[in-house]
Each structure stands twice: as structure tokens, then as C-alpha cells.
Amino acid sequence: MNANRKYHDPICWPTVEFNLVEAVRELENLLERVSDRVKQDDSGDVTQAFDRDLTEGGLAIQLSHAYHHLNSAWNARRRPMPEADRTFHRNELWPRAAHFKKFWPR
To answer: Which region, left, alpha or beta, applies to residue 82 given φ > 0 means left and ψ of -120 to 50 means alpha?
Structure first.
């Protein structure tokens, strides 16, 4: 198979959609939890509510789950879901495409 063929294969939109939906769900859930922690009192001053469940570790886990799905949306964009699932660990890597390197230096 020609090494450049993969760049000519069509994008598998259901795979991209699935991963974007999952990333958005995770971010919406996280935003709701963070917003619950930050309240404004009547004077407009910001106060923090205590939430035993949302720790730094919990924040890291939820953000990493969202990153996983964003990265998978890109890395598995040319694979149908069954194949994308089999390449789970490759899909979650930060994209190597040149236009992404400015955001995440290696």
C-alpha cells in the first residue's frame, strides 16, 4: 500500500462525531462542577464553595479524558469505530501534524 494513501482516504465522520460528543460531554460536566465551586455573593465578590469530590486529581482525570477524545477525533479520523477502538492507545497521543505542534511542543 502506498504510504501516502492514508492522506487520501476519506474522513470517517461518525468516528470524529463520537469523539467530539464525548469530549464536549466531559467538558460540560467539568464546567458544571467547577462553576458550582465558584459562587458570587450579593456584592459580586467571588467565593469558593467546598467540594470534597472535585480535587486536583479529579480535575486531571476529567481533563485527560476530554483530551483523549479530542486527540482520538483527529488521530482516528480515517478509521471506523471498530478499528478506532482497536488502536485506542495510538489514538490518544497528541497529534503530530505540523499545525498542532505550535500548541504542544515536544
So the answer is: alpha
3-state secondary structure at position 70: helix
Tell me how far apart the alpha carbons of residues 85 and 61 are, in angstroms, rounded to a whole number.
20
Cell of 94: 497528541
Sign of the torsion formed by the C-alpha atoms of 25, 30, 35 and 37: positive
CB 89 within 8 A of CB 50: no
How much is the pTM?
Answer: 0.69
| Averaged pLDDT for residues 37-50 | 62
Instruction: Give the Cα separation of 88 and 11 in Å (integer).
Output: 17
